Amino acid sequence: MSDAPLVRGWCPDLFAPMQARDGFLVRIRPPIEGLDAGQVQTIAALASDHGNGTIELTNRGNLQLRGFSRDSARLAGRTAIECGLADPDPARERKRAVLVSPLAGYDPACHPDTIAVARKLQAALLADDRLASLPGKFGWGVDGGGLLPVRAISADLVLQAGQDGWSVRCGEVVTEALNEAQAVNAVQAISFTFARQPEVKRPAHDANITKKVLEKAGLQGCLQSTMPPTFALPVGKLPGHRVGLGVPFGRLPASDFYFLAKQQGEDRLRVTPWRNVIMPDKTMDHPGFIMDATDPRLRVEACVGVSGCERATEDVAETALALASDVPPGCVLHVSGCVKGCAHPGGADMTLIARNGRYDVVRNGCTKDIISWGNRDLPDIRALLSRELKEIQA
Ligand code: SF4
To answer: What are the residue boundaries of the Nitrite/Sulfite reductase ferredoxin-like domain, all occurrences included (predicted)?
Structure first.
């Protein structure tokens, strides 16, 4: 593993592309409603004509294109603005980071106003110049529940639907239910409180600090578990005449994106924070996509590895694929190129951190947790998966 320092608190975007081993990264935020066919084609053309031809889906529901030169990254920015995929003002563009339940408007069990609330929240954030000092990583969410239950999506501040209205989730703290306008105002007020704080700019792991931030914004909250609920990945047939297409490691060639543009017609394509896509159910089968939610490739996560990142020493996706059949249903294995854990920042049943052909292993945690077994080779890992994941399942 490289000893290069981790860059924390900064997130590449369209106006601040990041240099990686394989060139500049360009990140595009889809609109709240999803991408129309013209936008999907434009993104595919950018990736194939100016990047390395690969499109990555991120765990914030964004799209990341790789392998750009500095000039072609600028061109990508201009193109994205022209086709409604970005705001021309970089400060406003950062405030477009509103993640929405990907089945909103389709799943009858998802709150019917989810998209409308997300639009109102985004409009309020865009209009609020006081939020300019929020860090680039700061993000918002609107969680309407349903098949993908409330708390399935995560962000710094989340409006979550309940029986009595919308509450605001901020780290581990949740406010009482509010009406729509109050809830949007509350998110704006909490965002502003974070923006003007000198130090803690995002919800802290310490619930007492978060509660104090809420109090400064004139709100009260109570502690709620941050453990995400268990739910099936949206792959295969879905409500609202939708189908979820699994994408191995959230990476697909531009040619597959062209295929999706043809299939969606007048409809929208949505990217989920689980790095797959939701399409109309008339979409034809295609070998690049996984339609079966029990496919073992959906149980493994891995970052771009040595082909795209200076910190990696190996092709971690190849390792993950080799181990996929050793991961039982219901479990997740994350193979990370380094301790940064880009592909799966949360916990997994087993997390491997690659180090020059060997692996440190964390059981039931993330790359930054205490290592359970250090410096193991692949046969050791197979034995651990067989023993430990059986235990987790039991
Ligand atoms: S997790 Fe992977 S992609 Fe992220 S910094 Fe480490 S090696 Fe690079």
So the answer is: 19-71
Residues with Cβ < 8 Å from 225, sequence gap 6 or more? 172
334 lines ligand 1 (CB under 6 A): no
Quick one: pLDDT at residue 2? Answer: 41
Of 60-64, 207-211, 331-335, which range is least confident?
Answer: 207-211
CATH number for domain 296-393, candidates 3.30.2290.10, 3.10.129.10, 3.30.413.10, 3.40.630.30: 3.30.413.10
Distance 19 CA to ligand 1 centre (A): 13
Q: Is the CB of 12 under 6 A from ligand 1?
A: no
What is the largest distance, in Å, between two alpha-carbon atoms of the chain?
56
Of 211, 222, 134, 105, the residue nearest 174 (C-alpha): 222
* End-to-end Cα spacing for the chain: 34
Strand arrangement of the beta sheet that strand 165-170 belongs to: 98-100, 140-143, 157-162, 165-170, 173-175, 221-223
CA of 294 to the centre of ligand 1 (A): 27
Domain with CATH 3.30.413.10 in the chain: 296-393
Helices (H), ranges, the chain: 37-50, 70-82, 90-94, 114-126, 180-196, 207-216, 254-264, 316-323, 378-384, 390-393
The two three-digit tokens of residue 155, written as one number: 């962000």
State how far the Cα of 227 lies from the Cα of 230, in Å rounded to an integer.
9
Give the model confidence (pLDDT) of 196-232 as tens digits. 987 778 887 778 888 888 898 888 888 887 677 888 8
The residue assigned the tokens 């389709």 is 106
Q: Measured in angstroms, how far is the CA atom of residue 7 from the centroid of ligand 1?
A: 11
Least confident stretch, 55-59, 220-224, 253-257, 293-297? 220-224
- CB of 320 shorter than 6 A to ligand 1: no
